[in-house]
Write a structure and sequence with these properties.
The chain has 391 residues and is α/β, with parallel strands linked by helices. It has helices at 2-6, 8-58, 71-83, 98-107, 130-136, 175-187, 198-207, 222-225, 244-247, 287-301, 331-338, 343-359, 365-390; strands spanning 60-64, 89-93, 113-117, 137-153, 166-168, 192-194, 212-217, 233-235, 249-254, 267-280.
Length: 391
């Protein structure tokens, strides 16, 4: 009896042991399955994120422009507005002026294109970057002329009176800073140059801390047109003479440009410097080159949209086929122009050249530039007249 009463225990132990092992096995399998599922989901998510990032970046270009109150940022904003689509995205970037923009295009990641003054590359010579600039920089198109604004008290009636006086020329590295130094040097004027940012310079001008503030930008400049000076300030004239005529173009301000600073019926003579759309010289077979090529094709083929109401008026001065002395055009832009797709832009340029040749007109580069702008305006007026008559 004693034996029989103990016999069930080994059997129970075996059953319990088998059951326990079974549960441990099931628990182990369940436990092992959790990391497998957990690893699979993040990997899938990471792949999706990489794919989404790749798609977003495939057609994205950074365009370095200028300060918040200048013309460059508005031009860059127009580029984004017109060209943004399913396969192209333009990111306007606030810049620190033409000279810094050139450096950014050459060296800063994420910057492919920039708006710069034609004379800005001269500023790279002092930094030993001239050869690198020739290798790394190209241009897509000549843009428009930017006028030189010299805002001063009405007590100053001649720019030569600024000799020895404090004149603000914007921060170092800006196109304004470079152009101002060149202009004063060519005119033989030696002001006491200071380098405050444009925004703070106007308050310093009102307080009398500085005698004048110089700014190079396409007219009309919002900050200057909105300048509150209680009638005490005006825009100074700059003579177009001597060495100035070799590097810059003649320009004018009228009351329609700046009603608060120019008397009705009055014209203020000034200078202008050309601006360009510069680009990094990416290798032809690179992804970045293909992005630039996509931008060029969209920009050239849809250029007429930039001249519509609501865009900056400076777009109406742009000639896509105009060449820039001393600069080499981007291969993508040159290929597009040579492909026969340039249409109206090339047609206008050819028509103008044929007209000048037929009439035997010989003009300086500055006069040809002015006449070409007037020719384009005349053609647009004629097209509007025809459209109105057709209706």
């Amino acid at each position: 009896m004693r034996y029989t009463t103990r016999r069930p225990f080994p059997l129970i132990r075996r059953v319990l042991g088998q059951t326990l092992r079974l549960w441990l096995t099931l628990i182990s399998l369940a436990t092992l399955s959790v990391p497998v599922a957990a690893q699979t989901r993040p990997e899938s998510g990471a792949a999706s994120a990489r794919a989404a990032a790749g798609a977003m970046n495939a057609g994205t270009l950074g365009v370095i422009s200028g300060g918040a109150d200048g013309t460059y940022i508005r031009i860059a904003a127009d580029l984004a507005t017109v060209l943004d689509g399913s396969d192209l995205r333009v990111l306007p970037i606030i810049g620190r002026g033409s000279l810094q923009n050139l450096r950014d295009i050459m060296f800063l990641r994420g910057v492919d294109i920039g708006i710069v003054q034609m004379d800005a590359r001269e500023g790279l010579r002092n930094e030993g970057l001239e050869q690198q600039a020739l290798n790394r920089l190209r241009y897509i198109t000549r843009l428009y002329n930017e006028e030189v604004h010299v805002l001063a008290s009405k007590d100053i009636t001649d720019i030569r009176q600024l000799d020895g006086k404090k004149v603000n020329i914007d921060k170092a590295g800006s196109g304004t800073n470079l152009t101002a130094r060149l202009i004063f040097e060519k005119l033989g004027i030696k002001p006491d140059l200071v380098t405050y940012d444009q925004a703070s310079s106007y308050e310093r001008l009102r307080s009398g801390e500085i005698a004048a503030a110089l700014y190079v930008a396409g007219r009309p400049v919002r900050a200057i047109s909105e300048f509150q000076g209680d009638g005490r300030f005006h825009l100074l004239a700059i003579p177009f003479e001597g060495e100035i005529a070799e590097s810059y173009f003649p320009a004018k301000f009228t009351g329609s440009d700046y009603p608060r600073l120019v008397e009705p019926g009055q014209e203020i003579n000034t200078l202008a410097v050309g601006s360009i759309l510069a680009v990094f010289n990416w290798p032809d077979n690179s992804d970045r080159y293909r992005r630039v090529e996509r931008f060029v094709n969209a920009f050239f083929s849809r250029f007429d949209e930039f001249t519509l109401p609501g865009r900056h008026p400076k777009w109406k001065e742009v000639s896509l086929t105009a060449e820039v002395p001393g600069w080499e055009r981007s291969k993508a832009a040159q290929d597009w122009l040579e492909s026969g797709r340039s249409g109206a832009a090339t047609g206008r340029s050819n028509d103008f050249k044929a007209f000048m040749d037929a009439q035997g007109i010989i003009a300086s580069a500055a006069d040809r530039e002015r006449l070409f702008r007037e020719f384009i305006a005349w053609q647009r007026d004629r097209e509007r007249t025809r459209t109105g008559a057709a209706r």
